[in-house]
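Pasting two entries for a bug report.
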Amino acid sequence: MDRARRALSAAPSGGPAACPGAAAGEHAWTAYMPWWHGAFAVTLVGTAVMVASQSGAWWRTAVVVGLLAVMGTAYAATPAKFVTGRGRQAYVACALACTGVAMAVRPEAAFALFIVVPNCYMLMPVRASLLATVSLLVLSSASDFSFAGTSPAVVVEVSTFGVAGLTFSLLMGGYVSSIIRQSAERAALITQLERARAELAEVSRTEGVRSERERLSREIHDAVAQNITSMLMLVRAAEAALARQDTASAQHQLALAQGAGQDGLRAARDLIAAGTPHELDGTALVPALRRCCASLGARYGFQAGLEVEGRERELPVAVATVLLRATQESLANVGRHAGARRADVVLAFGPDEVVLDVSDDGRGFVPSAQAGFGTRQLRSRAAELGGSAEVLSAPGEGTVVRVALPAPLPVGQGTSGPPTAAAVPR
């Protein structure tokens, strides 16, 4: 219990030692302070009235009332004693001294023990409180014997009061100790919860930063970087054409480079705004894919066409964005690496999913040996939407990039027939 009391004393005001019924940020004792203050005032005034109403020398009454006034002043002058412990020792010493002297002057002053004893248990360790309580009871009994004698009736009366006082002290000590122990346990629990909340907030912040970095890296790779790479290749092709004095071809390559630069600029603006890709701005996915095939095919010098299977329907923006980026990445890789003459894009709408296949007749490769950043990001994009992405290829057999994403039909919308699988050359 002493450890619990030290834990409460170490807790700052408004800290974790809050208790039920207390406002947020209150110390464990704060919720009960009005009751304790009221009980202290009533007991002190009641003791003074009781002493004054009894016959006896006036100076004894004056001394007791003065001592009670000093104790009340000490109580009021140390408002933080129950919360932070500041002024606790001074008040306890004053209360014990004033009560002891008052009982020695007038036995009726023992009525003040009804508030002094609880204060002891609230402000001192249990053993010290019990020792102080027993000492005060012994002093009270000695004062009674001194004033009333030692007749059998007085002995019985004083003994009864002493036993009742000791019992009250023990019960009060147990009650106060349990309150302090519960408050300390609650303080430890709230501290753990606050620490866990802070750790969770840090994890959420870190995860948010990581997710945003991944999003930016994907967008930069799939849109901005692809267009910059295309510009460099087209400018080099234009330089080669100029070296051959083929002005018409050089102008064509520069025009394509200008288009790639404009696409890159729009993609950068989309990235800054974190909005829908400009290719999908105000248009459906299928027209955007057709323009993508025409643009990238012309830019890299191969034929690219789009075939749609199943009943075309509007897709969620997130799904359409992944399919568009997958097509752009795949066709750009065809132009830069595959050495292909033709690429086919097949978009198949099924009842529960949509499947994109991008195939080419290029040189192919071993996917496990050349899994680059773009492939990893494509798989990550698909996985975020509950789908999958795979690359099928072999040396000399071309390449197929397949992306399957869940896209259930809207309620009440049927299909024109069973979906057909996209037959793509391997």
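Entry 2 (this is the one that rendered wrong in the viewer):
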Amino acid sequence: MRVREMSRLAHADVQSNGWVGKLLCDRLLSQENMNNNSNEGHQANMPEFIGFTGFRSRPILGGFCEGISRRDPSPVILVNGTYYVWYSRNTVAAHGYPATIWYATSPDGKEWTERHQALARGTQGDFDEHGVFTPSILQADGRYYLSYTAVPEPFYQGLGGQPHITKTAIGMAVAGSPDGPWKRCESNPVLTPGENPPEFDSLRVDDSCFVVRGKRYYMYYKGRQQGRTPAQTRMGLAIAESPEGPYHKHAANPVLDSGHEVCVWPHGPGIGALLSNAGPQGNSLQYSRDGIRFQKVADTEPPKAPGPYREDGFADGAGPGVSWGIAMQAHASWPYLIRFNCNLKAGS
């Protein structure tokens, strides 16, 4: 299929029907250009991103709330007529490190009710003692897998004479219902930083997001090398035969050299990705036919930390794309959650 040319260069604030958002979509690259720029034509027959013009959003859960940080939502899932989303929540600081994981539900994806804590911090001496945050969700074989980023005690951010920066790890908990109770997996942590300082993820593994392909579980995650800044974050891939792992890092890592947050989904026969404003390909929409080699489709400014509604239900096979989700609105003191709408549906 041929990707539609769009010469919009639109950058307009939109306010209608309670929605407040920003549209930014420079252009969709033609299929001819993509094939010329791709290796061995691996992007051929890419399904269309039909009519994509950007994003619009509005607050949920009351929007800004003094003294409460709600941030970094998971993808949204639908179970028995109820939508679920998980997120980092704390009342200590705007950042997520001291957070625990909470969840909210909705009958229609628009009006949301905060429920309660889904996952607490780990016990003394555990890899997740200090904080659990940046959750993601995976449905498989009638069970629910809640992945999360964690930091231990003592926790250091490398500030004010602290000896070093504490490394992160990715953990997982499992439940028979999206309402819990959640039990930590015996295989925790399921992903840890690289052992050698030159590796792209030797300091941070964070922000996991899942796609099921060929009966295997693709965990995309962001990694950061020791001595690098958040603006130098890159994206990696680890693959497992079972939801609980073991996850093996792909030899082609990092699969993307940009983006500070991980947002991927099955798009037609391939995988779509939104990259935030970090790295040389920041603020872009990407596509990969094989899940490893990505190509830019459009320049765009995505919402922060987007968690798309996974209409595919984590099924193995072609995906329908994305039309809405939950994201984060950054704030100087206390970030909050928003719902975003977009048109990122997969063409035929």
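Dev reply: Rendering is fixed now. As a check, the viewer should reflect this: The longest helix spans residues 31-37.
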